[in-house]
Design a protein that fits this description.
heterodimer, A: 414 residues, alpha/beta, Rossmann fold, 5-stranded parallel beta sheet, 10 strands, 10% strand, globular, B: 501 residues, Spore Coat Polysaccharide Biosynthesis Protein SpsA, Chain A, 7-stranded mixed beta sheet, 5-stranded mixed beta sheet, 12 strands, elongated, Exostosin (chain A), signal-anchor (chain A)
Chain lengths: 414, 501
């Protein structure tokens, strides 16, 4: 009996020692669990099946061929999602056993010479695609699209307009009212965010961010960092419209403050500077979301989100309240007081949460896909919505969608 | 035609002009009815007016027509509660004009918002201090996570003695040690006994120190000095043994220069480590030629470095030492010689020890460490390697000697040079140069004869005079120059006085 006790203590001692040694060399991180639980590291394989519709090339490949810039801008998630699903184990070739149906359509690839996507043809394109799938396969009409999902990463999602008032006026495309929308836009109580949509981060090139890493022990000496426009002189010369005046308020209040490293420069050391900063501002622009959030998370800089009622990516899987700092737009003049009143222990905890590699992975769209990345989080989100409620399946002859709703211009064939 | 024109204007707008000025839906708006044509014409007119005015004219008309009680400072920047409320109200109204009726009125509304600026948009010192404390805390945490894991106390051993350049050297060392982020014990061994001079100097650092005296005076020749310094260091090691101080012993000579990375690097030592020391073998002579000649003769183009030599698998195989043979003829033997001051073969400064090696009854003491008592009467300990039975156990630090983080230098004033004690001129000097003898800018130039009236002063002043035409310079400059010159003259005179004494 005594011999066993001795062996047990020896084993325990050694294991504690080993754990202690190992823990010394890793940066301290903390486990992330959101409102849906500890779901960041869930594996969607086996939990759902996705059927990918075969659309003619004019909806995807031809568009990409016409403008390959679509692969690098922040809306590239729609293209990479398609490629991921084509070779993913969740894909099924038998539509009868599929839980979700994916339509590979690139609606955000009609770019201006400067690279901004024009959404004017997107409603017609989407409508044409839906008409095609509803006539060629029976699955759309079975549920009127309730078990279909679409990736619409544009400014205001499926409202298909870059200007908020116009987008609100159009509302979500009527044909997509029942489908699940995977979009970057998220704002509570907004017409362009449906209940049950999945918010994703904008695309940020992972290799570019990896290439700009600096040594981990470089001390963080910048208190607040921001690079970007404060006034959009081209489109909103008087100010007050762009970013609801929040960015202009940041500039006017803190341009003289040495703690705030803010300017409109485009430095080559942008990524390196973020790694030397404690807080990174992520204010809204014309739309509330921004790639700055992704960059801040990847570089370990605590995001300060200044966008009222915003819905952040994977909000049910990631507890953003514990990771970032939320500042109301009306409180921007007191931003310095708000940030300095956060206790150091809270700041250190946020940094530990950000250092968690699963957090960084969840924000990225790497090629090839890795476990825990944004593609898998999207699938996890879709899996959490399963099983479909019996009521989504329409009774024969029942029709819910109104195919003639919407502006007259949308009815024209594409 | 009109269609394409409108579409074209969309494209333009996306890239440069007013955003969505008349962006009423897509280009194929209802063209058929008269009303639409009328609205289009009206819009066109508003466009032109806005282009001229520079802001969105139609919106202004909208606001002024539809909102009953508006304050005119809609577009003003400053922030007042009333304006803010009215702006918010206006923007709500504007939004309501455009928006279709929503089921839930969103908290966030689209439209023009005021830019909120607080009354004093400048940094608040209290907040700045708090922010700096946060930054410091974050950096401390970073150091704890990625820096040295269990930092040990450093024990710095410095042999010193009172002389003119002592303040110069000790201030440098003191400030380096004050910046070290680890616990530090400073053992200062002073040749010639403890003096107030050194005590007051060390006290300024605020570091924990042990200040002891050594009962021999510092001799005048470099060779003897090196020997005495070695003895003083041994004395300090004995103190460490008695006090049972625990940490890493580094030999901080007062005239050496240390980089901060040095103190981080030596935390990696286990028992005894060696670092590369850059040798700034300096010549005391006014002309550089003798040294540089000797240098060229020795056929060296880089600064000499003393330290461990490693093979490709980073194991210690030997030592790089300073080859002093080419310089021996020109080397300085006495402190005020005009020759090159040479270091020993391996300086003590390049070694660090674990203080436990010195303890008397330390059970884990390695076999290769000799006992300190063996060296009681030894005259010359060249380097700490003599403390070891086996020199191969030394750990090479600083990427195997590739990094030079410490520089050796010996610079001393003449041995008979005097300096005010504590570097405080008290009482004030008695000899002052009367101001009448210095030149005013607008005074007529004095004859050169009059400069040489005062014997002691005259010499110095005459040296400074030639080639000075200060007429063009401003009075202020001249006044400063005068003060400067008089002070110079005072110091020179006092020196000369003391010399004559």
């Amino acid at each position: 009996m005594r011999a066993y006790w001795w062996e047990f203590t020896v084993v325990l001692y050694i294991s504690v020692l080993l754990w202690g040694c190992e823990a010394e060399h890793r940066p301290r991180t903390e486990r992330i669990s959101g409102s849906a639980g500890d779901v960041l590291e869930d594996d969607p394989v086996g939990r759902l099946k996705v059927f990918v519709y075969e659309l003619p090339n004019k909806y995807n490949k031809k568009i990409l061929q016409k403008d390959p810039r679509c692969l690098n801008h922040m809306f590239a998630a729609e293209i990479y999602m398609h490629r991921f699903l084509l070779s993913s184990p969740v894909r099924t070739l038998n539509p009868e056993e599929a839980d979700w149906f994916y339509t590979p359509i690139y609606t955000t690839c009609d770019l201006t010479p400067t690279g901004l996507p024009l959404p004017f043809k997107s409603p017609r394109m989407m409508r044409s695609a839906i008409q095609l799938i509803s006539t060629t396969w029976p699955y759309w009409n079975r549920t009127d699209g309730a078990d279909h999902f679409f990736v619409v990463p544009h400014d205001f999602g499926a409202c298909f307009h870059y200007q908020e008032e116009k987008a609100i006026e159009r509302g979500i495309l009527p044909l997509l009212q029942r489908a699940t929308l995977v979009q970057t836009f998220g704002q509570r109580n907004h017409v362009c965010l449906n209940e049950g949509s999945i918010t994703i981060p904008p695309y940020a090139p992972p290799q570019k961010m990896q290439a700009h890493q600096i040594p981990v022990d470089t001390p963080r000496s910048i208190f607040v960092y921001f690079r970007g426009l404060f006034y959009d002189v081209n489109n909103d010369p008087e100010g007050g419209y762009y970013a609801r005046g929040a960015r202009a308020a940041v500039w006017e209040n803190f341009k003289n403050n040495p703690l705030f490293d803010i300017s409109t420069d485009h430095p080559t050391t942008y990524y390196e500077d973020m790694q030397r900063a404690i807080f990174c501002l992520c204010p809204l622009g014309w739309a509330p979301w921004s790639p700055r959030l992704v960059e801040a998370v990847v570089f370990g800089c605590i995001p300060v989100i200044i966008a009222d009622d915003i819905v952040l990516p994977f909000a049910d899987a990631i507890p953003w309240e514990e990771i970032g700092v939320f500042v109301d737009e009306k409180d921007v003049p007191n931003l310095d007081m708000i940030l300095t009143s956060i206790s150091p222990s809270v700041i250190l905890r946020k940094q530990r949460l950000l250092a968690n590699p699963s957090m960084k992975r969840a924000m990225l769209f790497p090629q090839p896909a890795q476990p825990g990345d944004a593609f898998h989080q999207i699938l996890n989100g879709l899996a959490r919505k399963l099983p479909h409620d019996r009521s989504v399946f329409l009774k024969p002859g029942q029709k819910i969608l109104n195919w003639t709703a919407g502006p007259v211009g949308d009815m024209k064939p594409w | 035609m009109k269609l394409s024109a409108l579409h074209q204007s969309y494209l333009n707008r996306r890239s440069s002009n007013f955003r969505g000025l008349s962006g009423d839906s897509s280009a194929d708006g209802s063209m058929k009815s008269q009303a639409s044509v009328f609205w289009l014409v009206l819009h066109g007119l508003c466009c032109l007016v806005s282009l001229v005015l520079g802001f969105r004219f139609s919106r202004l008309v909208f606001f002024l027509l539809f909102s009953p009680s508006t304050t005119t400072n809609l577009y003003s920047m400053p922030f007042r509660q009333a304006v803010e409320a009215s702006v918010f109200q206006l923007s709500t109204e504007a939004a309501n004009q455009v928006l279709p009726v929503n089921t839930t009125t969103p908290r966030v509304v689209v439209g023009r918002h005021g830019i909120r600026i607080r009354p004093w948009p400048h940094p608040d010192p209290v907040e700045v201090m708090k922010a700096h404390r946060i930054i410091e805390r974050v950096q401390r945490e970073q150091r704890a996570q990625f820096g040295v894991k269990a930092p040990r106390t450093l024990i710095a051993v410095t042999p010193t003695y009172v002389r003119t350049f002592q303040t110069l050297h000790m201030t440098g060392v003191m400030h380096s040690l004050m910046l070290v982020p680890y616990d530090l014990v400073w053992i200062v061994v002073e040749a010639g006994g403890v003096t107030n001079e050194t005590t007051s100097l060390i006290a300024k650092s605020g570091l924990r120190n042990i200040h002891v005296g050594f009962n021999e005076r510092m001799p005048n020749s470099w060779a003897d000095r090196h020997r005495l310094e070695a003895k003083m260091r041994l004395h300090a090691l004995k103190i460490i043994r008695e006090e049972k101080l625990d940490g890493i012993v580094i030999f901080v000579d007062d005239s050496n220069m240390h980089s901060m990375e040095l103190f981080d690097e030596i935390q990696n030592v286990k028992w005894i480590g060696a670092l590369s020391v850059g040798i700034l073998a300096h010549s005391n002579s006014a002309e550089e030629s003798s040294f540089s000649l000797a240098w060229k003769e020795a056929d060296n183009s880089v600064i000499p470095v003393q330290g461990p030599a490693c093979n490709s698998s980073n194991r210690l195989i030997g030592w790089h030492t300073f080859n002093s043979l080419p310089f021996l003829e020109k080397s300085a033997t006495h402190i005020d010689d005009r020759g090159i001051i040479l270091p020993r073969k391996l300086e003590w400064a390049g070694f660090v020890l674990n203080s436990r090696l010195l303890w008397k009854d330390f059970t884990d003491k390695p076999m290769w460490m000799k006992d300190l008592d063996l060296f009681d009467g030894v005259d010359d300990m060249e380097s700490p390697l003599l403390l070891l039975n086996d020199a191969s156990v030394v750990e090479p630090l600083g990427r195997c000697g590739l990094q030079v983080m410490i520089w050796w230098l010996r610079v001393e004033a003449r041995s008979d040079s005097k300096f005010p004690p504590g570097w405080v001129i008290d009482p004030p000097l008695e000899i002052t140069v009367p101001s009448k003898h210095t030149q005013w800018p607008d005074a007529p130039p004095e004859l050169p004869m009059s400069d040489k009236i005062v014997d002691a002063q005259g010499e110095t002043l005459a040296v400074k005079r030639p080639g000075k035409t200060r007429r063009s310079r401003s009075k202020h400059d001249a006044r400063n120059k005068r003060k400067h010159e008089s002070r110079n003259a005072e110091v020179d005179i006092s020196e000369k006085q003391t010399k004559q004494n």
